[in-house]
Amino acid sequence: MNKALKAWLVSLAITAVTPFVHADAIEDAVDGAHRDANNKARDVYRNPIETLQFFGLEPDMTVVEMTPGGGWYSEIIGAVVSGKGKLYAAQGPYNNVPAYQYRNLSRFLAMIGNNHELFKGVEMTTFNPPYQLDIAPKGEADMVLTFRNLHNWIGAQERDGVSGALAFRAMYDVLKPGGTLGIVDHRWPEDGDRIAGLKAGYIQESEAIRMAEAAGFKFVGKSDVNDNPDDTKDYESGVWTLPPTFALRGKDQSRYAAIGESDRFTLKFIKPAQ
Question: What total number of domains does the chain contain?
Fold first, then answer.
């Protein structure tokens, strides 16, 4: 076998076992055939390429995704870091939880099982404040990401006094100095009633920044990629009135579909170098 033919065959073999070899691993992961069709249909609302590029995700990073649920973002992040980096999926507790959390976990496990070669390096941990906070080895993560969870933690903190603050502490502890924290959540007006916002599934951007800084993070900046000025935030069933939940079960669904998914802030922080 001549050298040219041998090199060509080797390159084919590498391509066969390395799913994403192009210059932009995020774009390749978003376009990947491994993704669920229903998840892909939401790209127009969730803007994963622009969001993850803003946060600075790279294939060789160790990433922690907080309470990923069914794995909408894990399906992308896990593919980006497959083979070079690592993804810790810090799921919520599994016992005595609402039915939707069991359904989310089922979807997450199916995602891994159906694409095992791609996702076999994903490690699941548990985030259940104040009892379970070991979401990844301390000081080893390059990036922690959380999508549409902060309002839940802050809402829980209104009841137990600790959940939101402990979430930030857990995220801070696992990051390396200089590591990145990325937060996306439903934005409530700054002049709106804070508690009403939490009940409707929204949170004020200023509160997110304030809590992150109180935990020691440095605010880097924000992106408008997930802004949606059509979201009026005054719905009968809160943010869940909008897609994909459509909580009103068909009532005025075309109206809410036209609005699209929620107006969200997209914030980037770093853990200061020590």
Answer: 1
